[in-house]
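Exercise 7. Given the components listed, write out the predicted structure of the assembled complex. Treat all entries as one system.
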Amino acid sequence: MTTLTNDTFIRTLLRQPVDRTPVWMMRQAGRYLPEYRHIREQAGSFMALCTNPELACEVTLQPLRRFAFDAAILFSDILTIPDAMGLGLYFTEGEGPKFKHPLQTAADIEKLPQPDPAVELRYVIDTVSLIRKNLQGSVPLIGFSGSPWTLATYMVEGGSSKNFQKVKGLMYGQPQLMHLLLDKLARAVADYLNAQIMAGAQAVMLFDTWGGLLTTEDYSDFSLRYAKQVRALLKTDYQGQRIPCILFTKGGGQWLENMADAGYDALGLDWQTDIRQARHRVGDKVALQGNLDPVALYASPEVIGEKVKSILHHYGTGSGHVFNLGHGILPDINPEHVKAMVDAVHQYSPDYHHPLA
Amino acid sequence: MTTLTNDTFIRTLLRQPVDRTPVWMMRQAGRYLPEYRHIREQAGSFMALCTNPELACEVTLQPLRRFAFDAAILFSDILTIPDAMGLGLYFTEGEGPKFKHPLQTAADIEKLPQPDPAVELRYVIDTVSLIRKNLQGSVPLIGFSGSPWTLATYMVEGGSSKNFQKVKGLMYGQPQLMHLLLDKLARAVADYLNAQIMAGAQAVMLFDTWGGLLTTEDYSDFSLRYAKQVRALLKTDYQGQRIPCILFTKGGGQWLENMADAGYDALGLDWQTDIRQARHRVGDKVALQGNLDPVALYASPEVIGEKVKSILHHYGTGSGHVFNLGHGILPDINPEHVKAMVDAVHQYSPDYHHPLA
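Answer.
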């Protein structure tokens, strides 16, 4: 049973028959849209926008007015949890996210509180409710969080990093302390995603932006292990609906077999991975989401159409493919080129789906 | 026949029996050494150091005086060829390499000259001769170049890039022009490496720093294809000696099977790839070089020893493994930690080699 007008995205994640390939786009609510930039300016700062449910809801809905996307995704940041733990998230122009109080000592980690999503992350939960209400069942709403490992990198480094020297230093030098931090984060992420689900998120996605910077062994021990813990703690059903769950590790193409065993319904693919080979490797364990190179959206609409066609062709026949970029859309892409991508998915994908029974 | 006192590196690349695993380090002549910083300051600029054979020879030899490395590598930059083609290479503090005259039009590409290594790259060839002479047959000398694709990224972008928008734009929008550029570069790279071989380089390595940013298909068509062309044009023997050739694509772990068919004797591995799985995947086609995470050298000497042991163990028994980092050493590593790595390779690796017949 579903109350969605368009449930193609959910059905695809569950590998149920559909009549075409669904499409959405990482960072679809974002700077490439002039209407987003307008609201962002109005809000004053990125965090002011994130923490204002009305404005965050508005920017979530903006791309759906322009493009026939098959899902909405909560407008928020991956670093809301560390902020709720007291690290003080802020953004500086051109330098990405930073924390006022990065984790520097064992005591910092030991005393980290478990945030109550209904309190410290109330603004996100309210935003989810508001978006869900406004969507009126048109398309499903995706909730999300950064993965424990990815959150830990920012919390220890104090922001973005080139070499991840501090967080890897902690991992190599004091692995037990690192595990303590990741366990705390896994529980906080699960609480947070469950709260999003109860507020209306119909699918959730875990963004492991920096798992790909680890060795194969460390990815398994310090990133995937905690993605599994999150998954085990998540609601798999809510109010009679299955809540599909997507795991995306940027740069994780070498580890798809292991990721496919982590309990997720689908894996996100970056653009480097060939989706045909990926499908062959994961078999019928998971659906796949991706994976057009975000830079391909600078190309002409004709070239974009060809690239879309190629990815659809490489995935092949049958359900289980959600079309997306391999990473977030870049801020200076022409919205007409997004339209070219969406149109191409609509035009070419029905050929790859058998008629519904 | 070889005139080398220590030919462990060469024998390993050719998968001939050795009594221990050889070790060297990408960027082993570099800023982590105080004696390098001294010479670099004396030279005035990075390019002044590269173009001065006496000084470039001196910094090449410095790490060999401190550590029991099994190979020397020419001190130079990967971007000497575009500079020799007239693009005007320069370095700005903290921003990496830049070109005064990046490629902007079809005409820029069409009129690119083929440099004569004996003329425009004379300073490199002289450096190779001088290093070879000074090594006195102690260990082999590695020559190198950037790969055609990697050179093209810098030449089109005008320097380092985050998203490679311009070069991918050229690739997507005008693929024939991109192929023209890559063909010119492949021939120039082969000429350059052959000149290094004739001047004394006893092995060569192709650095494909940015191949890993491509899709699987584009990697094959625009990077690996030209690495193959380079290989086909290279001298495989010189003065009765086999000249082994190493291909390193950072981020190329998903494509090892294809790389193993490109005609190279060995593949460089970044740290994300598990060397055990890599060996299994490439079988007996190539030797492997790598792959300690450069960030692991910040850890304690004890932890470094454990990581070295683990990589040796994962590669397993027999010849075909050159120990190295998975990328260049970082500039603020303590040289004592490099010693810990080299000592661990010496201590633990003999167990993995059968006695010589």
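Discussion: The interface with chain B takes residues 163-165, 168-169, 172-173, 212-217, 219, 251, 253-254, 271-274, 277, 293-296, 298-300, 303, 307, 310, 330 of chain A (CB under 8 Å). The longest strand of chain A covers residues 141-146.
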